[in-house]
Amino acid sequence: MMRRGFGLIQALIVIILVSGLLVVAMKYATITIKQTSDAYVKESAELFMKSAVEMSLLAISGYERNSTQGCLQEVHITSADDRFFADVNITKYYLLSGSQDCSDCGALCQSVQTEDSHGMVLLNVHVQTNPHNTRNKNKTISLYMRTLQRP
Q1: What are phi and psi of 131, to 5 degrees?
Q2: Three-state DSSP state, 59
Q3: Is the pLDDT of residue 2 over 70?
């Protein structure tokens, strides 16, 4: 007499189906984790970029423009945890046409006629992940921004 129940083949098919579903679930979880960590690194880089702009404005405010030093042209900033670095290039200084500051800056000076625009600077900011930092783990992010600010 034959007993009813699962045979060896039916048990193997169930095990294969369950393991296939688990592989798909693990693949989906891996993709979700990667997307979340990439978004976190990008958000961190964007926040660092805003901080780099503020630090550049502070450096411009503290820099003494004169005929021997000229105007500050670039600022290099590294994050405290060494994950990002920023290169800030000061492209133009918008200064009053008759001011001494404009003659000190030379080619970087763009003459303006109104007091409202006096002192504005055009910044090109480039933020990158540090490839030598182990926390970045093959995450390469490069962000660019051009902004007009007043120090």
Answers
A1: -70, -20
A2: helix
A3: no
